C-alpha cells in the first residue's frame, strides 16, 4: 500500500488554491459537471471529486452544457456499466467542439483496465485526462497541468493501491453520509474485477475514521454508512470491524449506523452481537449470497457454503428477530445448471430476503470465470433472471405487507423522485418509505419521524406521520 503523505496532500491543496486564484484573476466562475456510475463507493469518490473541484473554485452544475469541466466517474463491475459510461462520454464530443476550453476527464474503475484505457486514448481523443481510483487525490495537479496547456494525461493506479487522508469532501446530503473505512479487496472471487481495479485491501486508521464520523455528526448527519469492498476484513490499531462499529455507536448524537458490503465468510458472530446490543446500529444486514448452489459457490471462489450461510442467518435472527436482510444474486454463472439455479430459488424462499439485487453474469477481463468454456447462453440467463425476480418480488411484497399498520422510524430525506406531492425517506430496515407532503411532514426533512405504514408495494412502503 502507498500511504499518501501529509506533505503530498498539502501540495494538492496548494495547487487547488492556485487554480482558484487563476480563475479569480480572470474574473471567471467556472462550473463542473460530475456524472457517477456504479456503487456507493463510487458515490463517495465523487463526493471527494466535488470537494476538490469546489476548493479549486468550480461551482456545481447539473447541466453538462454549462460546464467548463466534465468528470465521468466510472464503474467496471459489469460490462453494461462500462458501455453506459462510454456512451455518455461520447455524447460530450459535440460540447468539446463547441467549447474548446471545456476539459473532460474520465475517472474511476473502468480506466484502470488497460484495454479500456487504450480504447479511450484512441477512440475518444477529446478526453483530456484519465485518472484511476487510487490516484483521484492528484486531480488538482492533473487539472492544473491541463489549464497550463499540458498534453493529455493518463494517471493509472499502482497494484498495491493508495490511501489518502485529508482531502475535501462535498457531500450530497447533510442528513446522510458515506464514510469509507477501507479500500480494495483480497478475495479474488472468480467473476469479480474489483481486486484488479481498486487494488489490495487497505484499512484507514481508526482515529481518522472516528474524526470523520464526528465531523459528519456535528454537521447534522442522521444516517452514516460505513463503506468498503469487504468491511468485515477491516483491521486497524489491533481492532477489527466490530470494534470500530462499537466505538462509533458510543459517540454522542442521534444517528443510525449502517455498513456495506459484508462477505459471508468473514461476517463474525462478534459483529452480530455488536449490532444487537447497540440501538444506533440499524437492524439491517446486506449479505451477498451470489448463488444457492454449493458447487457454484466453490467455482466462484466464495469460500463458504449454503449451509454456513444459513447458520449465519439463523444466528442473526436469534439475536435480532426483526432484522431486515438483503443480498446480491448472480444469475447464469458459467456452468450453472437448471438444478443449481433451482437451488438458488430455494435459498431465496428459505432465507426470506427483504430485498435482493440480482444481476445477469457478465464476463470481466482478467477474471478466471471469463475464461471458462461453459458460458451460459444469454437467452437462458435472461429467462432465469426473470424467474428469480418473480420469486423474489413475491417474497418482498409479503414482507412489506406484514408491516402495514405498524410504526416505523423513518429518516425523511426530501421530495420523492416520483411525485412532488410526496416526501421520501428510509426506515431503519433501509426500506423506502413515502409520506404525504405538507407543512407538518416538511418539518421532518433531515430528521427522524415516526410513521404509521398504511400501504405496501413490492419496492416501497407508504405511510403517514403518527
Overview of this protein structure:
With 466 residues, the protein is of the alpha/beta class. The protein is built from 15 helices and 23 strands. It has a 6-stranded parallel β-sheet with strand order 3-2-4-5-6-7, sandwiched between helices. The chain is globular. Helix 10 (269-277) packs parallel to helix 12 (306-319).
Named CATH architecture of the largest domain: 3-Layer(aba) Sandwich
Instruction: Give the strand order of the largest sheet, numbering strands 1, 2, ... along the chain.
Output: 3-2-4-5-6-7
The portion of residues forming beta strands comes to 15-25%
Radius of gyration: 23 Å
Shape: globular
- What's the count of strands? 23
Biggest sheet features:
6 strands, parallel
Number of domains: 4
Number of helices: 15
Average residue pLDDT: 95
The secondary structure category is alpha/beta
Supply the CATH superfamily name of the largest domain. Answer: Methylthiotransferase, N-terminal domain
Provide the helix percentage.
25-40%
User: For this structure, what is the CATH class of the largest domain?
Assistant: Alpha Beta
CATH fold-type name of the largest domain: Rossmann fold
End-to-end distance: 51 Å
Low-confidence stretches: none
Compose a concise summary of this entry.
The protein is of the alpha/beta class. The chain has helices at about 5-25, 40-55, 80-90, 95-100, 115-125, 140-145, 195, 205-220, 240-250, 270-275, 295-300, 305-320, 340-350, 380-400, 440, and strands at about 1-5, 30-35, 60, 70-75, 105-110, 130, 155, 160-165, 175-180, 180-185, 200-205, 225, 235, 240, 255-260, 285, 325-330, 355-360, 405-415, 420-425, 430-435, 450-455, 460-465.
Amino acid at each position: 500500500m502507498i500511504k499518501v503523505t501529509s506533505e503530498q496532500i498539502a501540495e494538492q491543496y496548494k495547487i487547488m488554491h492556485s487554480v482558484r486564484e487563476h480563475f479569480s484573476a480572470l474574473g471567471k466562475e467556472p462550473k463542473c459537471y460530475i456524472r457517477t456510475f456504479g456503487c456507493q463507493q463510487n458515490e463517495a469518490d465523487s463526493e471527494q471529486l466535488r470537494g476538490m473541484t469546489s476548493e479549486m473554485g468550480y461551482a456545481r452544475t447539473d447541466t453538462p452544457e454549462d460546464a467548463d469541466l466534465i468528470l465521468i466517474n466510472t464503474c467496471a463491475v459489469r460490462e453494461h456499466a462500462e458501455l453506459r459510461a462510454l456512451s455518455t462520454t461520447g455524447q460530450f464530443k459535440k460540447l468539446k467542439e463547441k467549447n474548446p476550453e471545456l476539459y473532460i476527464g474520465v475517472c474511476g474503475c473502468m480506466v484502470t483496465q488497460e484495454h479500456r484505457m487504450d480504447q479511450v486514448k484512441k477512440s475518444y481523443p477529446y478526453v483530456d485526462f484519465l485518472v484511476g481510483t487510487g490516484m483521484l487525490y492528484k486531480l488538482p495537479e492533473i487539472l492544473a497541468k491541463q489549464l497550463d496547456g499540458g498534453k493529455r494525461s493518463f494517471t493509472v493506479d499502482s497494484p498495491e493501491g493508495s490511501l489518502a487522508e485529508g482531502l475535501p469532501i462535498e457531500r450530497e446530503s447533510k442528513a446522510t453520509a458515506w464514510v469509507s473505512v477501507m479500500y480494495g479487496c483480497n478475495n479474488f472471487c472468480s467473476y469479480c474485477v474489483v481486486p484488479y481495479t481498486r487494488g489490495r485491501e487497505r484499512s484507514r486508521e481508526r482515529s481518522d475514521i472516528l474524526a470523520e464520523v464526528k465531523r459528519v455528526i456535528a454537521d447534522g448527519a442522521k444516517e452514516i454508512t460505513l463503506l468498503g469492498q469487504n468491511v468485515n476484513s477491516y483491521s486497524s490499531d489491533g481492532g477489527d470491524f466490530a470494534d470500530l462499529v462499537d466505538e462509533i455507536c458510543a459517540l454522542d448524537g442521534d444517528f443510525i449506523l449502517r455498513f456495506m458490503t459484508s462477505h459471508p465468510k468473514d461476517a463474525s458472530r462478534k459483529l452480530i452481537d455488536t449490532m444487537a446490543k447497540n440501538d444506533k446500529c440499524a437492524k439491517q444486514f446486506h449479505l451477498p449470497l451470489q448463488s444457492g448452489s454449493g458447487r457454484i459457490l466453490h467455482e466462484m471462489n466464495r469460500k463458504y457454503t449454503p449451509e454456513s450461510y444459513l447458520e449465519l442467518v439463523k444466528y442473526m435472527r436469534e439475536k435480532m428477530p426483526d432484522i431486515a436482510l438483503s443480498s446480491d444474486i448472480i444469475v447464469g454463472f458459467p456452468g450453472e445448471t437448471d438444478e443449481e439455479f433451482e437451488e438458488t430459488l430455494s435459498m431465496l424462499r428459505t432465507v426470506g430476503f427483504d430485498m435482493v439485487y440480482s444481476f445477469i453474469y457478465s464476463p470481466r477481463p482478467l477474471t478466471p470465470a471469463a475464461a471458462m468454456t461453459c458460458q451460459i447462453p444469454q437467452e437462458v440467463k435472461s429467462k432465469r433472471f426473470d424467474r428469480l425476480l418473480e420469486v423474489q418480488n413475491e417474497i418482498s411484497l409479503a414482507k412489506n405487507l406484514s408491516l402495514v399498520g405498524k410504526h416505523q422510524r423513518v429518516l425523511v430525506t426530501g421530495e420523492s423522485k416520483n411525485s412532488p406531492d410526496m416526501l421520501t425517506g428510509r426506515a431503519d430496515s433501509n426500506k423506502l418509505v413515502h409520506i404525504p407532503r405538507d407543512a407538518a411532514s416538511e418539518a421532518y426533512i433531515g430528521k427522524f419521524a415516526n410513521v404509521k405504514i398504511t400501504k405496501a408495494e413490492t419496492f416501497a412502503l407508504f405511510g403517514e406521520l403518527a
